[in-house]
Write a structure and sequence with these properties.
Elements lengths: L3 H7 L4 H14 L8 H9 L7 H10 L13 H5 L1 H6 L6 H12 L7 H4 L37 H21 L5 H17 L5 H24 L3 H18 L2 H17 L3 H15 L5 H17 L3 H16 L15 H14 L3 H14 L5 H17 L3 H14 L6 H14 L9 H14 L1
Organism: Streptomyces flavidovirens
InterPro entries: TPR-like_helical_dom_sf
Protein name: C1 regulatory protein
C-alpha cells in the first residue's frame, strides 16, 4: 500500500533531492545512512513499512513533532511481530535486508561488499579484519566457484545493489585511492553470481545484471580516480558488455559516460566525443533530460580537448537547456551527484582545456560554492580546478589560498587525480615561490607529497 503521507512530505523535491536532504539531516545528528532515490521510492511505494532505527532517528529529526505514524509508517511490532508474519508475506525492511545480507556474506559465497570494504562491522571492530584483495579485478570462472548459489534471491541481489551504494558513499567522502583494491572482491562475486546462478524471475535477473554492471562502473571509477587507467578501461568495457547483453539502455549510457570521461582525461578527445554521442543515443530510451545533459557535457569536454571552441560552445548550450528541464522519475540513481555544482565544474574544465583561464575560474568558483559538503571528493576536485585556473589566470596569491583549502580536504580524501592536479598547480606557481602568500602553500604541498610517497 503506497505511503502517501511520506510522499506529501517530499513535496516538489525529486526523490534524489529528497534523499540528499535525508543524508544531510543524518550528518546533523551523527548518523550515517546511504539514502538514495531508490530508497525513497521504496518507502513511497510501501515496500518499507517501517524504517530501521537509524532512519527513524533521521526522519524524526527532519520532521520534529511528527511520529512514525504521521510519516505513514506502521508500528514496528506489527511489521516484525508474529501476527504480521502469519497474516502477510512481509516485504524486506532495511533491518531485515541487513540480516539477509550478513547471512549471504558469511554463507560460503565470496565475501561481499560490507566485508571487503570494512562496512557493517561491529563497533570497535577494525576494518583491517576483512580481506583487502590486491589482485587485479579478474572475475572468477563460474564453474568451480565455491559457494556461489545456483539460484539468486532477494538477499543476493540486494547485496550487490548495496555494494554499489556503499562504494559510492565512501568515494564521495574519502576518494578512491584507499578503496579500489578492497572493492575488487564484491565485483568478482557479483559476476560469479551472474555467471553461475539461475533465477526464474526475469525482474530478479535484470536487477542482478544492472547491479553487476553498476558495480563494475563504480569499481572502474575508483580505478580511474586513483590513476589505474588500464583497469578503469577494462571495468568500463565489462559494464558496457553487461548492459548490451541485458538490453539495459540506462546502464549502457552510464558506461559510455564514464568511458567518455576517461578518454578525455587520458588525452583521447576524439574518442571522448564518440563515446559521449553513443551514450546520448542510448539515453534517448531513458526519458531523463539530466542524463542527456551530462552526456552532452561529456561531448563538450571532448570538443574542448580537440580545441574546437564552436563545437564545445554548441554542446554546452544543449547541455544547459537539457539541465534546465529539471529532474525526472527516470533519472538514474547514480546521478545523484549531478546538480548545478557539477554542471559548473564540467563547464570550468571545458574552458580550462580551451585556455580561457579566467572564464574557467569563474565556473570553478561557482562549482565549489554550490557543492553539497556530502560530496567531499567533488569539493576537493572543484577547488583544485579553481586553484589551477587562478594560477594560470595570473592570480597566484588567490590560487595558493585555494590550494591550502585543497590540502585540508586531502586529509580526508584520497584521490590521485586531485593530487595530480594540485601538483600541476604548484609547478605553475613556482615562479612566485618568494611571495609571502605563495611560499607557505608550496612548502606545505612539498611536505605533504613527501609524507604520502
Amino acid at each position: 500500500m503506497p505511503n502517501n503521507d511520506f510522499r506529501r512530505l517530499r513535496g516538489s523535491r525529486s526523490p534524489a533531492e529528497f534523499a540528499a536532504a535525508v543524508r544531510r539531516a543524518a550528518r546533523e545528528i551523527g548518523e550515517q545512512v546511504a539514502c538514495d532515490a531508490r530508497y525513497i521510492g521504496r518507502v513511497e511505494a510501501g515496500d518499507i513499512r517501517c524504517p530501521n532505527y537509524a532512519y527513524e532517528r533521521v526522519f524524526l529529526h527532519m520532521f520534529p513533532g511528527l511520529t512514525l505514524a504521521d510519516l505513514g509508517f506502521s508500528a514496528r511490532e506489527t511489521v516484525r511481530g508474529r501476527g504480521a508474519r502469519t497474516t502477510t508475506t512481509p516485504s524486506h525492511s532495511d533491518e531485515e535486508s541487513d540480516v539477509l545480507r550478513r547471512a549471504f556474506m558469511t554463507s560460503g559465497t565470496a565475501t561481499m561488499a560490507a566485508a571487503s570494504l570494512g562496512l557493517g562491522t561491529a563497533p570497535g571492530t577494525s576494518a583491517s579484519a576483512f580481506p583487502h584483495p590486491s589482485a587485479p579485478a579478474v572475475l572468477p570462472a563460474a564453474s568451480g566457484t565455491p559457494g556461489v548459489p545456483r539460484r539468486v534471491g532477494e538477499a543476493e541481489v540486494s547485496a550487490v545493489e548495496d555494494a554499489v551504494r556503499q562504494i559510492r558513499l565512501l568515494d564521495d567522502r574519502h576518494g578512491a585511492d584507499g578503496l579500489y583494491k578492497r572493492a575488487a572482491q564484491p565485483l568478482r562475486t557479483a559476476y560469479a553470481l551472474l555467471e553461475a546462478s539461475t533465477t526464474s524471475r526475469r525482474s530478479m535477473a535484470d536487477r542482478l545484471h544492472t547491479g553487476a554492471g553498476e558495480l563494475a562502473l563504480s569499481v572502474g571509477w575508483l580505478a580511474h580516480d586513483s590513476g589505474r587507467i588500464d583497469d578503469a578501461r577494462s571495468h568500463y568495457a565489462e559494464a558496457l558488455a553487461t548492459a548490451r547483453v541485458a538490453g539495459d539502455p540506462a546502464l549502457e549510457a552510464h558506461a559510455f559516460s564514464n568511458s567518455a570521461f576517461l578518454a578525455r582525461d587520458t588525452g583521447r578527445p576524439r574518442e571522448a566525443v564518440r563515446a559521449a554521442q553513443a551514450g546520448q543515443r542510448a539515453a534517448q530510451q531513458v526519458a531523463s533530460p539530466r542524463l542527456l545533459s551530462l552526456l552532452t557535457l561529456r561531448e563538450a569536454g571532448g570538443w574542448a580537448g580537440l580545441g574546437d571552441r564552436t563545437g564545445c560552445e554548441q554542446a554546452l548550450a544543449r547541455a544547459k537547456a537539457l539541465f534546465e528541464r529539471g529532474t525526472a522519475q527516470a533519472d538514474p540513481e547514480w546521478m545523484s551527484f549531478f546538480g548545478e555544482a557539477e554542471l559548473e565544474g564540467l563547464e570550468a574544465q571545458c574552458w580550462s582545456a580551451l585556455g580561457d583561464w579566467a572564464r574557467a575560474a569563474r565556473h570553478a568558483r561557482r562549482a565549489a560554492a554550490l557543492q553539497d559538503p556530502h560530496f567531499t571528493r567533488n569539493l576537493a576536485l572543484y577547488s583544485a580546478e579553481l586553484a589551477d585556473d587562478l594560477a594560470r589566470a595570473g592570480a597566484p596569491d588567490e590560487a595558493a589560498a585555494v590550494g591550502e583549502g585543497v590540502l585540508d580536504l586531502l586529509e580526508e580524501v584520497q584521490s590521485s587525480r586531485v593530487r595530480t592536479m594540485l601538483s600541476e598547480t604548484t609547478r605553475v606557481l613556482l615562479p612566485h615561490r618568494r611571495s609571502p602568500s605563495v611560499a607557505p602553500f608550496l612548502t606545505r604541498h612539498a611536505n605533504a607529497s613527501r609524507s604520502s610517497a
